[in-house]
Structures are given as C-alpha cells and as structure tokens.
Amino acid sequence: MSNTRFTNSAKSPTARLCALLIAGCLSSVAFAQASDPAAAPVTHADQKAAKQQAKADKKAAVAQAKADKEKTEAQADADKAHAEATLKDAKKQ
User: Fold this and answer.
1) Please, are residues 15 and 9 in contact by the beta-carbon 8 Å criterion?
2) Residues 26, 64 within the same domain
3) How do the pLDDT tens digits run along the chain, 93 residues long?
C-alpha cells in the first residue's frame, strides 16, 4: 500500500513541477559550464590575437606618452611666455 502512495505522489502536479525545476537547474548549470570561455582550451589563433592586442596596447601607450610629453612641453612654453610677459609689464611700471 505504501508503494501505491509513492507512485501516486510522484504523479502529482507538485512533484512533477519540482522534478522539472530540478532538471531545468541542472541543465542550465551544465550549459553554463560548457559555454564558459575560460574553460575552453586556448588555441593558436587566440594566442596570436592576444599577442597582436598586446602590441597594439603598447603602441597606444607609447603614442599617449608622446602626446602627454608634447602637451607638457607646450604648457611649459606657455607658462614661460606668460612669466616673461608679466616681468616685462612689471619693468615698465
């Protein structure tokens, strides 16, 4: 008789819903693990792309450093010109 109750309870809508939810969770976890890019092996193309990206990043950093240096030098020249103009005005008075 207890065997009959178990069979009937497994067929109830609540039990089916729980079973479907558990199956859905397990399948989503399995899919997430399969689609994780960190879990995928690194291919030669990935290595080549990473190397090219590193080169591009280095070139961008060098270009930014040059631009910063030019900006700093231009600001220093402007400050010097302003100081000379102020000094010249002070001498006139």
Assistant:
1) yes
2) no
3) 445 455 554 567 777 776 777 877 666 655 555 555 565 678 999 999 999 999 999 999 999 999 999 999 999 999 999 999 999 999 887
Region for residue 40 given its phi and psi (left: phi exceeds 0; alpha: psi -120 to 50; beta: otherwise)? beta
Q: Do 26 and 10 have their domain in common? A: yes
Provide the residue range defining the domain that includes 12.
1-40
Report the C-alpha gap between 26 and 60 in whole angstroms: 45
- Residues 11, 20: Cα–Cα separation, whole Å: 12
Separation CA 93–CA 84 (nearest Å) = 15
Confirm if 79 and 85 have CB atoms less than 8 A apart: no
Number of H helices, E strands in the chain: 3, 0
- pTM recorded for the entire structure: 0.47
